[in-house]
Amino acid sequence: MIGINKNKKYINKIGTLFLFLLLSVQAFSQASISWEIPFVKISYSLSNGFSISANAGIPTPIGKFSVEYTQSLYDKRKSSEIVYVDRITIQKQDLLVVFRNRNKNSEQDMIYKIKDGANLDATTDGKTNIIVREGIIIVDITSVENCDVVFNSKENGNQQNINTFPNKEKIIKFINDYYKYLKNNQFQEASNLFAYRLKRFHSTYNISRESVIEKIKQYDNTFGVYNKKFNVHWESLELTNIGNKYVSISYTLDYFIERSNKNKPSTFLIEMNIELNNNYQIISIYENILNKK
To answer: Do residues 88 and 126 make contact, with C-beta atoms less than 8 angstroms apart?
Structure first.
């Protein structure tokens, strides 16, 4: 969880001082939502709307926006240190928290800003999905009856949260290892990254780990490949927690191959979709080719 840096002496002085704010906004659904950071809590319910109690990093409600607007906001944040949303300044170190409801006729996002909250990370009890993108956390409240979303301090809670699933750092390492093993034909190492049985391996369904490794071994000969390179677009990485048992991962990457048939494509832009169990093993993996040449 991303931490709010306060020394112990200061925290003890203000530990019992909380600011309670009641925000009247149109309810999204019949979900009941709350999350806590040290000294920060936001709650949502159908009858009461949103309420806030905090003594640091007080979330600022910005308003309701379309999903398309949130996407454009993410794109702007990637290219600019400072962006503006309804005249509110969003700096690089600020965190945006988005409550998304997909039950409306048109999707709507309720956006909050947490000042200096870029070091915050979120986990859930498994009753809702969370999408983590650079500087933005999306909480999907479409189908939940109630939910807790908890923010933890990376600075103060690394040891505690290292085993929290899904762990973003572990997933990044997992992806790097996966492509290293594919590039170097390290089949034994690659086999450890797969579950005993997979729901899907590209175009094949309900397949064993052993069969997956056989397909990987045959890949170079089948397609006449003698060298390959992978370049992950880390800014596109999205993680969706599924019941604290699985995590859905999506990202784009450039895939370059050298192959014997020079008339066939050798450069690909690919969207990857991976599902891991909570042992960080692949249970589903497939790609969509966005471009090739």
So the answer is: no
Tell me 103's DSSP state.
-
Q: Tell me which of 161 and 150 has the higher pLDDT.
A: 150
Q: What are phi and psi of 95, to 5 degrees?
A: -105, 135
Average pLDDT score over residue span 155-181: 74
52 token code pair: 């806030």
In the chain the domains, ranked by start, together with CATH numbers, are 8-161 (no CATH), 168-292 (3.10.450.50)
Least confident of 4-13, 98-107, 149-158: 4-13
d(CA 42, CA 54): 8
Token output for 103: 């039950």
The contacts of residue 189 (CB under 8 Å, 6+ apart) are 177, 181
Residue 37 pLDDT exceeds 90: no
The strand pair at 32-37 and 146-153 is best described as parallel
Sheet with 197-201, side-by-side order of all strands: 59-66, 108-114, 95-101, 136-140, 129-133, 225-242, 246-259, 267-277, 282-292, 197-201, 204-208
DSSP 92: T
What confidence score (pLDDT) does residue 7 get? 44
Residue 180 near residue 251, CB atoms below 8 Å? no
Residue 62: which pLDDT band, with cuts at 50, 70 and 90? confident
Question: How many whole angstroms separate alpha carbon 166 and alpha carbon 150?
Answer: 13
pLDDT score, position 200: 95
d(CA 194, CA 59): 40
Helices (H) then strands (E): counts for the chain: 6, 19
